[in-house]
Structures are given as structure tokens and as C-alpha cells.
């Protein structure tokens, strides 16, 4: 009897593991009660960042907030989902985790590029802006020319990393997992500059008295919601909801709330009014 019980428990344990794996690592097919093919119907699990203020960040109580977070929750509501859980990741982990089905979506000012579209699909774009070189006023970095032979931080897997590799060939790149780590290195003098998204740079500049040395347009890679490939119903629903949120002025209201004073791309504003 005893040995039989052991076998039963072992089987249950193995079965449990198999279920866990299939939940975490397989793409979820759409079905009648799960039209968007989510990990769990009615619940959106989102990979994000805790330190990309004001796009996505955690507030003092540990809750995710910011432009991307509030915009995505509004879009989720429009497709009938109010349970949205954000989890902070290193930027370089977000797209692989979305691609293999550990999350339903990735939301973190993630620019849509052909290279990324090889592994994930994206919603229609919802944000377009600049990449910014942030520096200390005493660093000697004044512009792109004076970046030569300086140490500049980039976050692994970002467009800033690939742009710098291509265009700032004389600059020594230092890779970091996240914004906070790179900004502390800039503040303590380990780095001369750091390359990140415009609005996050603006926020760190205010917090730590840092300055901007260059803004580089990244309008050809607007941010989108990353989702696993082959989920046409999910993508169509997101796209429709995003366009509605732009047309009824929700996008504009959130943009003005989170990015006050920033230039507003006209393509996301209500049309024909
Ligand atoms: O390409 C831009 C886009 O135009 C907008 O300004 C929002 O940021 C971008 O999507 C670029 N974002 C970086 C990237 O996609 C870094 C993302 C991050 O640090 N969270 O690699």
C-alpha cells in the first residue's frame, strides 16, 4: 500500500509539473471561452519595467503606473478585461518571455522594429518620440561629437544599444540590465553618459540634476504592445481599442498627464474634429 501511495504522489507531482510547464511555456490557442488565447481567460499578465518613469514604473506602494500602464489598462477595459497584472522584468527579458507564452503582453515603450517582429507581433503603435543622451554637466559630453572616447551606458536589448553600436562607434558602450543601475553609474562618475528614452531621461534629469546632450528621433519605431505571434483575434481587438482610445481623446488626456509640455505627435489625436 505504501509504495502504491508513493507512486500515486509521484505521478501527481509529475503531472503537476507538466501542467505548470504547459501553462508557462506554450502559446495559448483561442477558444470560445478564451477568444484572445490568454494564459487565463479574463486576465492579462503583462511583462513591464519598474524603472522607466513616466512610461512604466512602480509607485511607493509597489503598484505599476505611468503612461503606458494607464493607457494599456484603458485599452484592456475596452476589450472587456479589467484584471491586468504587471510584472517587472529586465528589458532584455520582456520579448523572449512574451514570445514563449509566459506573459500575454509586453508593455514598456517597446519600439516596433522588423528585427523584433521576427519573434513577436505588435499592436498598432501608440507612442513615438526621441532617444536621449543624458549626461552630467561636468562630463565634457556636450553633443554627439564629444561622445567619442567617453563611457556611455545602454540598457541591453534596447534600440539605444543598437543605435549606439551603429552610429557612436568611437564611444565605449557599457551595458546595464536596467535604467536605475545605469543612472547610478552616471551619478557616481563610472559613466560619462547614458542613452535612454526621452521621457525617462527628462525624469532622471529632474531628479538628479542631469542634462541632455542629444535627442535622436525614433519616430520610425513607435512603441506598441508586444504579444505572441499568431493571435490574430487578440491583435485585432487591441488595435481597435487603441484607435478608439485615440479617437475619443483618452490618449491625449493621458499624454498631457504623464508628459506635460512634450511635443504631441498629431497622428494619435482625434481625427476629423
Ligand atoms: O522608439 C521609441 C518610440 O519612438 C517612443 O519614443 C518610445 O520609446 C521607443 O519605443 C524606444 N524605446 C526603447 C526600445 O524600444 C527602450 C525601451 C525601454 O527602455 N523601456 O528599445
Number of domains: 2
CATH fold-level label of the largest domain: D-Maltodextrin-Binding Protein, domain 2
The radius of gyration computed from the alpha-carbon positions, rounded to a whole number of angstroms, is 21 Å
Q: What's the level 1 CATH class of the largest domain?
A: Alpha Beta
The description of the largest β-sheet is:
5 strands, mixed
Family: Belongs to the bacterial solute-binding protein 3 family.
Protein name: Amino acid ABC transporter substrate-binding protein
Organism: Pantoea wallisii
GO molecular function, one term: ligand-gated monoatomic ion channel activity
Describe what this molecule looks like in 3D:
By secondary structure, this protein is α/β, with parallel strands linked by helices. The protein folds into two domains: 43-128 and 221-260, Periplasmic binding protein-like II (D-Maltodextrin-Binding Protein, domain 2, 3-Layer(aba) Sandwich); 129-218, Periplasmic binding protein-like II (D-Maltodextrin-Binding Protein, domain 2, 3-Layer(aba) Sandwich). Helices cover 36% and strands 19% of the residues. The chain is built from eight helices and 13 strands. The chain has helices at 2-25, 67-78, 91-99, 159-167, 179-187, 198-208, 232-247, 250-258; strands at 43-48, 51-52, 56-58, 64-65, 83-88, 105-106, 121-122, 130-135, 151-155, 172-176, 193-197, 211-217, 226-227. Strands 10-9-11-8-12 form a five-stranded mixed sheet, sandwiched between helices. α4 links the parallel β9 (151-155) and β10 (172-176). α2 crosses α7 and α2 packs antiparallel against α8 (250-258). It is globular. The termini are far apart. Mean pLDDT is 92; it is low at 1-24. Bound molecules: Deoxyfructosylglutamine. The site of Deoxyfructosylglutamine (SNW) has 20 residues, from loops. Residues 49, 52, 91, 108-111, 127-129, 155, 158-159, 197-198, 218-219, 221-223 line the site of Deoxyfructosylglutamine.
Amino acid at each position: 500500500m505504501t509504495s502504491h501511495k508513493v507512486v500515486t504522489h509521484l505521478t501527481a507531482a509529475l503531472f503537476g509539473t507538466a501542467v505548470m510547464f504547459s501553462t508557462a511555456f506554450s502559446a495559448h490557442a483561442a477558444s470560445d471561452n478564451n477568444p484572445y488565447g490568454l494564459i487565463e481567460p479574463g486576465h492579462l499578465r503583462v511583462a513591464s519595467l519598474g524603472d522607466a518613469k513616466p512610461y512604466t514604473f512602480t509607485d511607493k506602494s509597489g503598484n505599476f503606473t505611468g503612461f503606458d500602464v494607464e493607457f494599456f489598462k484603458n485599452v484592456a477595459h475596452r476589450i472587456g478585461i479589467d484584471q491586468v497584472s504587471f510584472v517587472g522584468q529586465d528589458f532584455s527579458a520582456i520579448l523572449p518571455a512574451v514570445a514563449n507564452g509566459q506573459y500575454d503582453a509586453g508593455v514598456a515603450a517597446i519600439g516596433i522594429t522588423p528585427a523584433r517582429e521576427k519573434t513577436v507581433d505588435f499592436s498598432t503603435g501608440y507612442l513615438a518620440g526621441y532617444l536621449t543622451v543624458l549626461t552630467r554637466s561636468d562630463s565634457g559630453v556636450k553633443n554627439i561629437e564629444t561622445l567619442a572616447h567617453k563611457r556611455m551606458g545602454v540598457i541591453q536589448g534596447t534600440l539605444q544599444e543598437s543605435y549606439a553600436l551603429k552610429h557612436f562607434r568611437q564611444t565605449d558602450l557599457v551595458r546595464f540590465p536596467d535604467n536605475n543601475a545605469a543612472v547610478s553609474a552616471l551619478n557616481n562618475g563610472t559613466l560619462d553618459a547614458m542613452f535612454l528614452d526621452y521621457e525617462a531621461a527628462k525624469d532622471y534629469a529632474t531628479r538628479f540634476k542631469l542634462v541632455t546632450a542629444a535627442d535622436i528621433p525614433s519616430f520610425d519605431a513607435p512603441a506598441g504592445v508586444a504579444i505572441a505571434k499568431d493571435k490574430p483575434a487578440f491583435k485585432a481587438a487591441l488595435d481597435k481599442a487603441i484607435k478608439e482610445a485615440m479617437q475619443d481623446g483618452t490618449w491625449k488626456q493621458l499624454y498631457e498627464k504623464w508628459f506635460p509640455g512634450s511635443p504631441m505627435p498629431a497622428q494619435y489625436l482625434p481625427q476629423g474634429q
